[in-house]
Here is the input.
Amino acid sequence: MWVPFAVLAAVVLLPILYGVLTYNTLVALRNHIRDAWANIDTELKRRYELIPNLVAAVKGYAAHEKEIFERVTQLRAQCMASQGRPNQQAVDENQLVAALQKLMLVVENYPQLKADRNFLELQKELVNTEDRIQAARRFFNGNVRDYRNKCETFPSSLIAGAFGFQPEDYFQVDPAVREVPSAEFDR
Here is the structure.
């Protein structure tokens, strides 16, 4: 008498239990992604606060490099205003990082600037911030990977599709940003 009831209960309850657990896991992973993005956003804002001080320090030594200062300032404002998906924001961030690399190349031509205590502190803070951004980006992308795996593997993909869970974008760095810029300047 109990066996058919137990089999019927298992056939009905186990899929429901699996569906609830999978749904809750997807929600938790999506929230981890949002939290990780908030951490990246915090570090990016820290970078944006450091950039004007860095530009001001370099400007005093290299006033004739006006176009680099203007480009860094413009890209900083553009990045601060960017509120799109991670892959959209990555485009702006990649341009800003490339401009900052050019700014640091300008610094190489000014030994007295490289020895300035205030500049060295700003540079150290910027490097520290960049390291923190990279760590936060790796954490974010790990969460995106886990979420995408859950959304795309069977049978959890059935639950994800049924409840409208959409794939999230990775926060990727353009490979060109990783290249060392040329140190040639037109004077």
